[in-house]
Design a protein that fits this description.
This is PKD domain-containing protein. Residues 1-23 form the signal peptide. It comes from Labilibaculum euxinus. It is a single chain. Helix content is 14%, strand content 39%. Among the domains are: 28-299, TolB, C-terminal domain (Neuraminidase, 6 Propeller); 512-696, OmpA-like domain (60s Ribosomal Protein L30, Chain: A, 2-Layer Sandwich). A hairpin with a 5-residue loop joins strand 30 (357-367) and strand 31. The protein is mainly beta.
């Protein structure tokens, strides 16, 4: 029997060891401090010298204080130093000269521990104290250390007999004082306020606002050396009672609060957290053991919040030149050179770079007889840059129970020396490393988070950056195949899942028609077209403004750094796809394209049929109602007639002229003619079609 149980235990140990070898479930390691007692309360610690100061109602022989109806001592301030790797076991009264017959503390310290700001009752001169007296409000007091003795406490100028002012926290530079008050005009019971020191005077208290304060109680603020605010609240969504939250101020605004994970927070009251500048270790208070006690914690896996979504790097572009020199196609042709060894013939060309770099793009007119450059039409020099971001490389869909590889090696943060990579797989499992693997037991959509930490700078600060990516997990291969089929690209050029290469979609149907651009008609200046963003070639600086309902207008110097503009437009392109209004317009343009009938005979007469005019008027209405929309008018013709291309060019230009004459700006219209061949290279004799396409929102 003993042997049997021994085997079972060994098996369980092996399973558990293998489970935690590749991940763990807790962000923090928590332990109770050795000086806490079961019968007394200890709470609200503050860093002081090489230890902490905290509040406790433990009995002391140094001073006779009043007690509560429950025969509990009132609170005094105690100090306990660090001994070895932990706090000592024998706290002592911080300073007898600061003790009163009433509640003393919590406290905070500044100016190299030579200044204390602490809370106590405003009236402390009474020899008797009625514990039920709620008129003797709490206030803040300041004392200075003179040698080894603290000076007589001075009251805070905003103390009041009408409301409490308590629980102070001072910023590292001493310029900001956070505290708690139930003064009128707040959001709830207790709110957190801020005063700033201006000309050695504290400014009027400012409520931290609705991002921090709720209709409940917010208390026990602590501002870390890195500027992160930690506080307790029963108004924000938590696990029960008081929970600990944090937030940072960015550009003058407090960010969405972060709920600190278990085991720091629990279903009990958890409050009074203090920490080092990088939230790597510290202390907090909790009543999870029946009385208020102080616990120490160590961060094993940092929490990350307000993470960015991954921006896919875009290396594929459409190049064309709207201002062109007419050439005799019998003796010459256009040829693009993309600066990476690739050349493509044609007035318009699609090209994908293998990655970032500096490139020189040229459009040349080539003499067919000699193969030499007859004239250089266009020349661009630009640097193609990747987004500066953390990056998750993994599949988009996967099966349950299957190992999935996650890579952070494509993270591009050149100005930061990265030290650690952390993964949160959204199923309770965490892991660390630049390359990890993980499997999911249940189907669902998981929000995978990659967080990176930098090395410490000269002040000891670390930078935290994170990104997130959704991963769909299904139970059976059939569902996975269906999902991949639905997500499979149908255009001939699409970014792959890693955003770096173009997938060439194979066409198995020999009757599928493939367009090839052979001519483009317009009279603008030479430009490089990268999706929907135009780069103007000019001897002077030209600037282009991008407006988006996602981001504020951003000015981009295209000559100095066009690649940044390319990346930004790629991001806006993503939001564009989700725009329901634009999607509706694109659908209608497809219908109008199919309905439009325009013969070459009408081109010669410079007139439109009765069936074509209503369609043109609807196009006009769409363009006038959507001032940011640009339209591409493309004519697809077969190669049987050599005159077809010129007639098609006149046809598209006639449509453009019709719209321009009725109020559409010229720059919002593009015209193009395409040669049509099927995949086998055979000419299709019966296919002529017009296409209206939205090319910009």
């Amino acid at each position: 029997m003993n042997k049997f149980f021994t085997i079972i235990l060994l098996v369980l140990f092996t399973l558990i060891s293998s489970f935690f070898a590749n991940g763990q479930t807790a962000n923090y390691e928590v332990n109770s401090t050795s000086f806490c007692s079961a019968q007394d309360d200890e709470y609200s610690s503050a860093y002081y010298k090489d230890g902490i100061v905290f509040c406790s109602n433990r009995r002391t022989d140094l001073f006779v204080t009043f007690s509560t109806p429950e025969d509990k001592e009132l609170f005094n301030m105690f100090y306990v130093p660090v001994q070895g790797d932990s706090l000592g076991k024998s706290p002592a009264i911080l300073a007898t000269e600061l003790m009163t017959n009433f509640n003393d503390g919590p406290a905070c310290f500044g100016s190299n521990d030579s200044v204390i700001i602490f809370s106590r009752n405003n009236e402390v001169n009474n020899k008797k104290r009625d514990s039920k007296d709620d008129k003797n409000t709490l206030g803040l007091f300041t004392s200075h250390l003179n040698g080894i003795v603290w000076s007589n406490p001075e009251p805070f100028e905003y103390n009041s007999l009408d409301h409490h002012v308590t629980m102070p926290s001072l910023s590292e530079d001493g310029s900001k004082l956070f505290f708690v008050s139930d003064m009128s005009g707040g959001f709830g019971g207790l709110d957190i306020y801020l005063c700033e020191k201006i000309n050695n005077t504290w400014s009027t208290p400012q409520n931290l606002g609705a991002e921090i304060n709720t209709n409940g109680d917010e208390s026990f603020p602590f501002i870390s050396a890195s500027g992160e605010l930690f506080f307790a609240s029963d108004g924000h969504k938590g696990l029960g009672g008081l929970d600990i939250f944090s937030s940072k101020m960015i550009d003058g605004e407090w960010q969405e609060v972060l709920h600190i994970n278990t085991p720091i927070n629990s279903k009990f009251d958890d409050f009074g957290l203090i920490t080092d500048r990088n939230f790597e270790k510290g202390y907090f208070s909790s009543n999870r053991n029946a009385s208020d006690d102080i616990f120490d914690f160590k961060t094993m896996f940092p929490q990350f919040t307000n993470c960015d979504t991954i921006k896919e790097n875009q290396y594929c572009f459409l190049f064309y030149d709207e201002y062109y020199t007419p050439v005799d196609t019998a003796t010459s042709y256009y040829e693009w050179f993309f600066g990476d060894g690739v050349k493509v013939k044609g007035k318009e060309a699609e090209h994908c770079y293998v990655g970032p770099g500096k490139y020189t793009v040229e459009l040349n007119i080539i003499d067919k007889r000699t193969g030499e450059v007859f004239m250089r039409q266009t020349n661009y020099e630009f640097e193609l840059l990747d987004f500066e971001q953390a990056y998750i490389s993994c599949v988009d869909e996967a099966l349950t129970k299957n190992q999935i590889n996650f890579e952070a090696s494509k993270t591009n943060l050149p100005s930061i020396n990265l030290e650690k990579y952390f993964w949160d797989f959204d199923d309770g499992i965490l892991d660390e490393g630049i390359s990890v693997s993980h499997s999911y037991d249940k189907a669902g959509v998981y929000n995978v988070v990659l967080g990176v930490l930098s090395e410490k700078d000269s002040l000891g600060n670390r930078k935290k950056i994170c990104v997130e990516k959704n991963l769909a997990v299904v139970k059976n291969p059939t569902a996975l195949m269906r999902m991949k089929s639905e997500n499979k690209p149908h255009n001939k050029n699409n970014p792959s899942t890693d955003g770096n290469f173009v997938v060439q979609q194979e066409l198995y149907d020999p009757f599928i028609i493939q367009p090839k651009l052979i001519h483009i008609a317009s009279d603008a200046r030479g430009i490089l077209k990268a999706f929907d963003l135009v780069f103007f070639e000019s001897f002077e600086k030209e600037k282009y403004f991008i407006n988006s309902n996602i981001e504020e207008s951003e000015e981009i110097d295209l000559n100095s750094n066009p690649a940044k503009a390319l990346a930004l437009e790629s991001l806006l392109n993503s939001s564009r796809k989700s725009n329901a209004k634009l999607h509706s317009i694109e659908k209608e343009l497809q219908v109008l394209s199919a309905q439009f009938q325009y013969s070459f005979i009408e081109v010669e007469k410079q007139s439109f049929s009765e069936s074509a005019t209503p369609i043109l008027n609807r196009l006009l209405e769409i363009l006038l109602s959507n001032a940011l929309l640009e339209l591409k008018i493309g004519y697809h013709v077969n190669t049987q007639s050599k005159q077809s291309f010129d007639r098609a060019g006149k046809a598209t230009q006639s449509i453009a002229d019709y719209l321009i004459e009725r109020g559409v700006e010229k720059f919002r219209l593009r015209t193009a003619v395409y040669e049509i061949t099927n995949q086998l290279g055979e000419e299709n004799k019966d296919t002529n079609s017009l296409e209206f396409k939205a090319i910009k929102e």
